[in-house]
Amino acid sequence: MNKKQLIACLMTVFMLNAVCSGCSDNKTPSQNHSSATDSLEESSNMESTAELSSSPADMITSSESTLSAGEPSKRTSSAASKVSSKANALSSQGTSSSSQKTGYISKANTKVEPTRTLTQIKSMLSSDAMKCDSYDLKKYTTPYWNGNIVYNESLNFIKDPKTGESSAPLLYNAAEILSVKNSKLNITYEEGIDYTYANGKITLTKNSRIHTFQYGDIYFNSGHDNNRWALKSGLGYKYTLFYEGTYFHENQIAVTYLHSEPWTGFKPDYEGDNLPNVINKLKKGENVKIVYYGDSITKGGNASGMFGVAPNMPIWAEMVTQRLKQAYPKANITMYNPAENATDSTQGLKDCKVKVANQKPDLVIMGYGMNDGTNSKLTPAAYQSNIKMIREMVRALYSKQTDFILIATTLPNPEIKLGDASYQAEYESVLYELEQKGTLGGEGGTIVANMTKTHQELLKKKRFFDMTANNVNHPNDFLVRAQAQNVLSLLIENYQ
Predict the structure, then answer these.
(1) Hey, is 311 helix, strand or coil?
(2) Count: domains in the chain
(3) CA-CA distances (angstroms) from residue 109 to 3, 201, 274, 432, 466?
(4) For residue 393, what are the domain limits?
(5) What is the rounded distance in angstroms from the CA atom of residue 222 to the CA atom of residue 457?
(6) Are 393 and 304 found together in one domain?
(7) Same domain, 197 and 297
(8) Which phi and psi (to 5°) does residue 293 adopt?
(9) CB 16 within 8 A of CB 345
(10) Closest by CA position to 439, among listed 263, 274, 322, 293
(11) How confident is the prediction along the chain (496 residues), in pLDDT tens digits per residue?
């Protein structure tokens, strides 16, 4: 960036300071958890799903109907299809050799795990490896797409008003259930007494100790208040429950199980070659400063550790930093996380000098998009412009060598009505256009951590209800873990 460009950027920030950011001053629906609920405004709708189901029952109790929850609306289909086709071709394209060439340098991970029998799987695992009775950094950050064991996968239950059954689908067909526990991991439930398992689903018994919601606990036709959120039309109900804090977490269960299925969906791959400056410092054992910048999801919402409840899983940024320290033990890695609730990329641009550039980062991991796509109603072009200017300002004010990871946001509850903008699914394509291969000692690289695609893939097998902490837009421990796993896979070669 030359002097004229820098002056133009600074003038833009000066002008932005005179304008309200659009969402940061809005009040959130909940009055019970003010620090966490500021981030409610990070919600979006996906209009196409309104036509997928005649009632919430069809959507929340069927993994087939939830398959469409991760699919883009008609307005987003063009951009999303470009990303999908591009992602399929990435592995054969290789990467750009020029630091000036941008767009789609990411590689798709096409490695498929071999199919193993249950006997083979169990012979490869110790007894300790087959249990997870408390938070464990290694187990919680083991990618769900690798290996043959899933630790503490979250499930939520609601009684189907048509059948009276309470069941929930797992991500894989389990070859053996190792444990079913409450979310705090201090109660173990018994198969045949509390639940049964068949055809990829956990189903509660009549006298199960496991909590199940009634439909009247989640869906309403009257009484719109701070804890009831408007639904899209055509679902049979007007409102659904919104609640911040630990309410949903405490009513979920955690399932650890073995499976023999290979993961064939989207999964990230190592991108260290595109971030040579920070990777070189990590490998050489130098000082490395990471700044995590973004909204309340980047801040950590809603990891259980944020609220001091078991299993007290840390926020994803802390898990990433801790695993990086293990992977690069000679490096002196420090982190700074100034992420704020209820913010968007416009606010991020206004604050980036103090909160990012002044911190002298070697790597910036930036996650905006949930608020941008709804309350701020930023078009993909406007969103991309903000993200690009943040990157340019940080490099101009501190160092051109700073590397960036841009996070394409997770998705909100597909049943929720949240205004006339729902751009989240479109943002991933414009973030890919900002990718660039860095040069060692020269301009830093930029890559994308695609949580949009990750969430969409998970929604093909699991329901939004099983991965949410507030029923609107915040991830629970399981989805927070997926974000850490995604970012770590980009930064650690052959990550397991």
Answers:
(1) coil
(2) 2
(3) 40, 28, 15, 16, 26
(4) 3-109+266-491
(5) 34
(6) yes
(7) no
(8) -130, 130
(9) no
(10) 274
(11) 555 555 555 555 545 544 333 333 333 333 333 333 333 333 333 333 333 334 565 556 443 333 233 333 333 333 344 344 444 433 333 333 333 334 556 666 777 778 899 999 999 999 999 999 999 999 999 999 999 999 999 999 999 999 999 999 999 999 999 999 999 999 999 999 999 999 999 999 999 999 999 999 999 998 878 899 899 989 999 999 999 999 999 999 999 999 999 999 999 999 999 999 999 999 999 999 999 999 999 999 999 999 999 999 999 999 999 999 999 999 999 999 999 999 999 999 999 999 999 999 999 999 999 999 887 789 999 999 999 999 999 999 999 999 999 999 999 999 998 765 679 999 999 999 999 999 999 999 999 999 999 999 999 999 999 999 999 999 999 999 999 999 999 999 999 9
| Structural domain ending residue among the three candidates 202, 234, 258 | 258
The number of angstroms, rounded, from the C-alpha of 24 to the middle of its chain's C-alpha atoms is 21
Q: Are residues 327 and 419 in the same domain?
A: yes
Task: Give every strand in the sheet of 239-241, ordered side by side.
Answer: 219-220, 239-241, 228-230
Q: What are phi and psi of 55, to 5 degrees?
A: -150, 160
Q: Which amino acid, residue 267?
A: K
Strand partners, 364: 291, 404
What backbone phi and psi angles, to 5 degrees, belong to 288? Answer: -135, 125
CATH number for the domain that contains residue 53: 3.40.50.1110
Secondary structure (DSSP) of 136-198: -HHHHTS-TTSSSEEEEEEE--B--TTT---EEE-SS--SEEEEEEETTS--B--BTTTEEEE
Q: Given 258, 286, 308, which residue is the final one in a domain?
A: 258
Question: How many CA within 13 A on the CB side of residue 382?
Answer: 13
Q: Which amino acid would we find at residue 80?
A: A
Integer Cα distance of 120 and 114 in angstroms: 11
pTM of the model: 0.83
